[in-house]
Amino acid sequence: MPYIRSAEALVHEVHGVRFVSYAVPAAGSKELCAWRGEVPAGTPGVPHTVSREEVLYLLSGTLRFSVDGEVADLVAGDAAVVPAGSQLRLDNVSAEPAAIWTATGVGLTATLPDGSTLTPAWAN
């Protein structure tokens, strides 16, 4: 099925962030996953190491990105490319919510600081 209506998108909430999954194997995608992340104002991020390359595009608001310790504040229209194996952290340090679009390959996992692995439903 080539079309995913907003009402059909799967919603997940983890670490205070809402993930709205559009492209995922459960919706017919074979190679790519894509979702909208909604980050409330003042939400601290959780550092995690990604197993696959991710491309993140800021739709609205401002987010502080940290990729392997390199920090940048991005605004709507900015993007970040996060290489596989990098540690990523996103913080919303502003007083406004932010929205981000993320694309990656099917099978993404995230390793958390305690060594546990998260296999996000919105990317598998």
Q: Short description, anyone?
A:
The chain has 124 residues and is mostly beta strands.
Inertia-based shape: globular
Strand order of the largest sheet: 1-2-3-10-5-8
Q: Please report the first level of CATH classification, the CATH class.
A: Mainly Beta
Strand content: over 45%
What is the radius of gyration computed over CA atoms, rounded to a whole number of angstroms? 14 Å
What proportion of the residues is helical, as a percent range? under 10%
CATH fold descriptor: Jelly Rolls
Mean pLDDT: 96
Number of strands: 12
Structural class: mainly beta
Please identify which CATH superfamily we are dealing with: Jelly Rolls
Name of the CATH architecture: Sandwich
Q: What distance lies between the first and last C-alpha atoms, to the nearest angstrom?
A: 17 Å
Topology pattern, helix = H, strand = E: EEEEEEEEEEEE
Task: Describe, in plain words, how this protein is organized in 3D.
This protein is mainly beta and 124 residues long. The chain has one domain: Jelly Rolls (Sandwich). It is 0% helix and 51% strand. The chain is built from no helices and 12 strands. The chain has strands spanning 10-14, 17-23, 32-39, 48-50, 54-60, 62-67, 70-75, 79-82, 87-91, 98-105, 110-111, 117-118. A hairpin with a 5-residue loop joins strand 11 (110-111) and strand 12. It is globular and about 40 Å long. It starts with 9 loop residues before the first strand and ends in a 6-residue tail after the last strand.
SSE inventory with pairings:
Elements: E1 10-14, E2 17-23, E3 32-39, E4 48-50, E5 54-60, E6 62-67, E7 70-75, E8 79-82, E9 87-91, E10 98-105, E11 110-111, E12 117-118
Antiparallel strand pairs: 1-2, 2-3, 3-10, 4-9, 4-11, 5-8, 5-10, 6-7, 6-9, 11-12
